[in-house]
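Tokens in:
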């Protein structure tokens, strides 16, 4: 292990770690997590649940693309996406917000058609949205280089998503991002919170609803067909 670390620090692995060509950009960053995924797998056929949830994430990916965003990573029950690679920051934050709202609608339809009838419990998701300057480039280990986005704003967006459960609100938006969002007459409550690993307090908006509310929106079967169709 120490030898591998020394090689990396001394630049002895040029074939594995390509030269950095990162560019600094202002992006909107979205993190999403399925909250009760583990419990669902424990109580039901895990393989079947994973297959269905993968289809749901495929839908999330298409939603992200529809709002000019790009998924950076999907790991287990988490999704990480950025908006603004080709847009200005204001448009990017609004796209991230609209994408999140569409993802929530998709989950509600999924719950009505599948999770509640077959498993008795709805899936719930938590979302954190933040914006700021990050470094964008490509990075790969033993394979093709992939999009890499790094910087403190990424950490803050991730921590916001994790904070949704503690605050019992399924979508948190940082004030930095919220000031760009066109919400019309809708106003969200503001709080100043502390995030794990972040030294200074963060002003945020509670832009979602409490967990386990049971308030699923009525939708038509045609809407469900469309939202499932985008998952292929």
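Residues out:
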């Amino acid at each position: 292990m120490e030898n591998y670390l020394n090689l990396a620090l001394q630049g002895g692995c040029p074939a594995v770690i390509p030269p950095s060509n990162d560019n600094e950009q202002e992006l909107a960053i979205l993190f999403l997590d399925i909250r009760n995924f583990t419990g669902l797998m424990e109580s039901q056929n895990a393989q079947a649940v994973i297959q269905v949830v993968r289809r749901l994430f495929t839908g999330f990916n298409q939603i992200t693309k529809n709002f000019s965003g790009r998924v950076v990573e999907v790991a287990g029950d988490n999704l990480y996406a950025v908006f603004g690679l080709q847009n200005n920051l204001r448009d990017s934050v609004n796209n991230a917000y609209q994408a999140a709202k569409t993802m929530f609608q998709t989950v509600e339809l999924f719950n009505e058609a599948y999770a509640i009838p077959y498993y008795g419990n709805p899936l719930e998701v938590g979302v954190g949205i933040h914006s700021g300057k990050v470094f964008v480039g490509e990075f790969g280990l033993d394979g093709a280089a992939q999009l890499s986005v790094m910087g403190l704003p990424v950490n803050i967006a991730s921590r916001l998503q994790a904070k949704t459960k503690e605050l019992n609100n399924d979508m948190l938006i940082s004030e930095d991002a919220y000031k760009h969002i066109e919400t019309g007459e809708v106003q969200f409550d503001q709080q100043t919170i502390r995030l794990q690993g972040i030294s200074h307090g963060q002003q945020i908006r509670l832009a979602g609803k409490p967990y386990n509310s049971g308030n699923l929106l009525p939708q038509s079967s045609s809407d469900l067909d469309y939202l499932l169709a985008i998952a292929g």
